[in-house]
C-alpha cells in the first residue's frame, strides 16, 4: 500500500502532466504543490512510485509521466468526479431540450459530449431488448392495407405497412388495436410474442388471417430493430492529441470504425455507473493508448443503453467523468418525459 504522501505525489504528477503535456520533475512538483516536504523527499517518493510501476521516465526527459497503472490508481482512489457548474448544467439542458425525436436526441448528445470533453463521443441507441412497448397504433390506409406504428418507452417510433389477405373493417381494426394494447402496452419487447400468440383466436374466422398478418409484422419489427446501433462524433478531436499516441493515430481510427468494438468498449448497459477503462484494459490492441469513460442512461432509473467518450490516457478524468455523468442524467430525463 502506498503512503498517503506518495498518493499525493502521484495525484500531483497526474494533474500536472494532464495540464501541461510535459513530463513532471520533482522541482516543478514542489514549486506547484504544497506537499510539505523537501525536493529530495519528493525525488525519493517518485523513485518508489516508479519502482512500483505507477510512473515512468520517458527516455528523452528527466521528468516522469503516469503509467496505465498510475492512472488507474488515480481514478480509483484520488479523483473525485468534477461536478458541472450551474451554467454548464443549464447549457446541457437547453441544448438537449430542443430535440424533436430519438434520432435528434442521440445526434445532439453526441455533438454535446464531443464539445464538452473535446474527445470522441459515442452514444448507443436504447436497446430494444430492455425497452417496453408504450403503444401500438393501427391505421387503415385502404380496405386491405394497414399502417402499424410501434412506439417504445424510449421514444423510438417504428412504422410498417401491412398488406392484409382480405379487407379489414374499421370496427375490426379498432377491436384489434384495443386488444393488442391491453396485452402489450407497458410490457417488455421480449415478452410480446407469448402475450399475443393466441390473439387471432379472439376474432371471427374471416378476420384471423389479417390479425395473424398484422401480428407477424409486429414481431418482425421487434426482431429487425433488435440490432444494436450507435452514433459516433468528434473523431477530429483526436488530431489534437497526436503526440499522445506512441505510434500513429491510424489504429485508433480503425478501431473506432468497428461498431462491435465500440459496443464492447461501452460495456453492458445494465451497469449504470461510470466505468473507466484505461490503456491496456481495453482489449482491442488499436485502443491500448486510449481511455474510455462510459455510463448507462435510461428512464425510470434503469439503464437502457450507454454513452461515453474515447480519448488519450492523458485525459482530465474528473472533468470527463462529470460531463459524461451529467449528460447521461439529462438524456434519461428527456426519455422519461418523451
Q: Shape, please?
A: elongated
Number of DSSP E strands: 10
What composes the largest sheet? 5 strands, antiparallel
The span between the termini is 49 Å
Major sheet strand order: 7-3-10-9-8
Show unreliable segments. Answer: none
Averaged pLDDT: 84
Describe this structure in words.
- This protein is an alpha+beta fold and 338 residues long.
- Helix content is 45%, strand content 17%.
- The protein has helices at residues 4-20, 26-32, 39-51, 68-78, 86-97, 102-117, 170-184, 192-196, 205-224, 250-256, 259-266, 317-337, and strands at residues 55-56, 65-66, 120-124, 133-142, 145-152, 157-163, 230-233, 275-278, 290-297, 305-312.
- The strands form three sheets. It has a five-stranded antiparallel beta sheet, with helices on both faces. Strands 4-5-6 form a three-stranded antiparallel beta sheet. It has a two-stranded antiparallel ribbon with strand order 1-2.
- The longest helix has 21 residues, at 317-337.
- The relative contact order is 0.14.
Q: SSE layout and pairings?
A:
Layout: H1 4-20, H2 26-32, H3 39-51, E1 55-56, E2 65-66, H4 68-78, H5 86-97, H6 102-117, E3 120-124, E4 133-142, E5 145-152, E6 157-163, H7 170-184, H8 192-196, H9 205-224, E7 230-233, H10 250-256, H11 259-266, E8 275-278, E9 290-297, E10 305-312, H12 317-337
Helix pairs in contact: 1-3, 1-4, 2-3, 5-12, 6-12
Amino acid at each position: 500500500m502506498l503512503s498517503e504522501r506518495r498518493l499525493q505525489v502521484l495525484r500531483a504528477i497526474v494533474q500536472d502532466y494532464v495540464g501541461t503535456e510535459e513530463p513532471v520533475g520533482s522541482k516543478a512538483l514542489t514549486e506547484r504543490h504544497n506537499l510539505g516536504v523537501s525536493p529530495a523527499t519528493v525525488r525519493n517518493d517518485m523513485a518508489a512510485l516508479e519502482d512500483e510501476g505507477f510512473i515512468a521516465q520517458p527516455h528523452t526527459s528527466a521528468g516522469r509521466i503516469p503509467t496505465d497503472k498510475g492512472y488507474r490508481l488515480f481514478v480509483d482512489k484520488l479523483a473525485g468526479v468534477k461536478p458541472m457548474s450551474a451554467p454548464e448544467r443549464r447549457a446541457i439542458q437547453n441544448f438537449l431540450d430542443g430535440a424533436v425525436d430519438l434520432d435528434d436526441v442521440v445526434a445532439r448528445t453526441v455533438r454535446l459530449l464531443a464539445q464538452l470533453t473535446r474527445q470522441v463521443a459515442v452514444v448507443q441507441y436504447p436497446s430494444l431488448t430492455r425497452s417496453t412497448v408504450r403503444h401500438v397504433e393501427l391505421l387503415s390506409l385502404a380496405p386491405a392495407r394497414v399502417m402499424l406504428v410501434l412506439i417504445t418507452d424510449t421514444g423510438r417510433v417504428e412504422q410498417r405497412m401491412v398488406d392484409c389477405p382480405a379487407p379489414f373493417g374499421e370496427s375490426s381494426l379498432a377491436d384489434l388495436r384495443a386488444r393488442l394494447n391491453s396485452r402489450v402496452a407497458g410490457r417488455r419487447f421480449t415478452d410480446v410474442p407469448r402475450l399475443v400468440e393466441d390473439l387471432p383466436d379472439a376474432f371471427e374466422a374471416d378476420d384471423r388471417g389479417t390479425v395473424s398478418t398484422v401480428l407477424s409484422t409486429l414481431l418482425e419489427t421487434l426482431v429487425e430493430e433488435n440490432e444494436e446501433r450507435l452514433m459516433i462524433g468528434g473523431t477530429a478531436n483526436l488530431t489534437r492529441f497526436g503526440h499522445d499516441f506512441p505510434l500513429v493515430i491510424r489504429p485508433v481510427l480503425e478501431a473506432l470504425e468497428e461498431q462491435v468494438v465500440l459496443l464492447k468498449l461501452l460495456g453492458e448497459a445494465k451497469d449504470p455507473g461510470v466505468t473507466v477503462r484505461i490503456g491496456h484494459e481495453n482489449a482491442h490492441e488499436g485502443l491500448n493508448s486510449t481511455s474510455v469513460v462510459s455510463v448507462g442512461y435510461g428512464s425510470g432509473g434503469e439503464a437502457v443503453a450507454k454513452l461515453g467518450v474515447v480519448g488519450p490516457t492523458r485525459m482530465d478524468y474528473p472533468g470527463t467523468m462529470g460531463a459524461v455523468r451529467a449528460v447521461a442524467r439529462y438524456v434519461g430525463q428527456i426519455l422519461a418525459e418523451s
